[in-house]
Amino acid sequence: MKLNLLCVSVFVLCLVGCGTKNRVLQSAVVVKPVQILGARDTVVHEVKLTLDSPTLVIEPAVDISPIGQQFLERTLTPEEKVQEQKRMGIHKGADWASAIHYDLRKPNFVIIHHTSQNSTAQTIRTFQVEHSKVSSHYVIGRDGQLVQMLNDYERGWHAGRSKWGQITDMNSMSIGIELDNNGREPFPDLQINSLLNLLDTLKTKYTIPHTNFIGHADIAPNRKDDPNVFFPWKLLAERGFGVWYDESFLVQPPFNFNPIDALKIIGYDVSNEAAAIRAFKRKFIIKEVNGILTDYDKTVLYNVYKRYY
Ligand SMILES: [Zn+2]
C-alpha cells in the first residue's frame, strides 16, 4: 500500500515537473540568427518579443553611414541618447531570450554638494547648457526652494571621477543634491530643513543606509571640498543621515590603531593620504583643515570607526 502511494506520488510529481518545464520552454524563446547591432554599426534592427505571442518581429533595417552617425549623435535628444545607450548595452555575442522580471536600478547613496554659484537660477542654467556636462537630481535654494532636475532613477553627472570603498562609479549608485551656496558661507536653516525633508523621503523610499549619506569631498578628496566646513553634518547624523562621533566618549585609540586603515575602511580613497585626511578633518574637525592627524583627530577618527564600521 505504502509502495503504491509512493509510485503515484512520483508519477504526479513527474507530471507537474514536466508541465513546468514545458511552460518554461514555451516562454523562453531563444533567438539565434538575429543581429542586434550597436550605434556604431551600419545596420540597426529592432527586436520585439511578446509573451502572449512569442514571435520575432524585425523592424525594417536602417542604414546609418558614418557621417549620418555623427549627425545623429549631434542631434539626439537626452531621451534618444538613453535609447541608444540601451542598445549599446546588448552584448552582440550572446543569444537573446528576454527576461520578464526586472525594473530600474535604485539609488543607494546620496551625495551632497555646494554649487559654488550665486543663485538657484544660475545653477539651473549651468545644468542646462550643452557644454557644462554636469547635472544633479536636486537643487535646493537658500530659501529652501526644492527643484528636481532628474528622475531619481536616472544617472546624474554630479560625482565625476570619484571613489568610495570599492565603488568607482558613484554616479551610477547615487542621487546628487546641490545646495545653492557660494562655497564660503553658512547654509541657512530654511535650506537645511528642506534638505532634511528630502533626505527623509529618499531614505525611506530607497532604503538607503544611514552611512551612505556623504559629501562630494568624501568621494573625491583630491579634487573637491564641498559641502564647505559650515555644513551641519552633526545635525544630519542626529537625524539619521551620515555619521558623527560620540563627543562624550572620546578615548585614545590603542597603540596598534592604524588611522589610514580606518579611513580606508570608512570608505575614503587613501591613494593620497593627505587628501583623505583633509577631507576627514573638513567634515569632523572643521578647524585646522590640513593633511596631518593630531592626537585629538585620532580620537575622533577612532570613535567614528568603532561606532559605525
Ligand atoms: Zn560637488
From TrEMBL:
- List the GO terms this entry assigns under cellular component, sorted alphabetically: outer membrane
Pfam families linked to this entry: Amidase_2 (PF01510)
Does this entry carry the keyword Cell wall biogenesis/degradation? yes
GO biological process terms held by the UniProt record:
cell wall organization; peptidoglycan catabolic process; peptidoglycan turnover
Ranges where the Peptidoglycan recognition protein family domain occurs: 88-220
For the keyword Hydrolase, the answer is yes
SUPFAM superfamilies given in the database record: N-acetylmuramoyl-L-alanine amidase-like (SSF55846)
Entries under CDD domains matching the protein = PGRP
Which EC number(s) does UniProt give? 3.5.1.28
List, for all copies, the residue spans of the domain called N-acetylmuramoyl-L-alanine amidase.
Answer: 97-228
Top-level taxon of the source organism: Bacteria
Q: Which GO terms describe its molecular function?
A: N-acetylmuramoyl-L-alanine amidase activity; zinc ion binding
| Catalysed transformations (reactions) | Hydrolyzes the link between N-acetylmuramoyl residues and L-amino acid residues in certain cell-wall glycopeptides
Q: Give the protein's recorded name.
A: N-acetylmuramoyl-L-alanine amidase
Alphabetized, the UniProt keywords read:
Cell wall biogenesis/degradation, Hydrolase
Q: What broad class of enzyme is this?
A: hydrolase
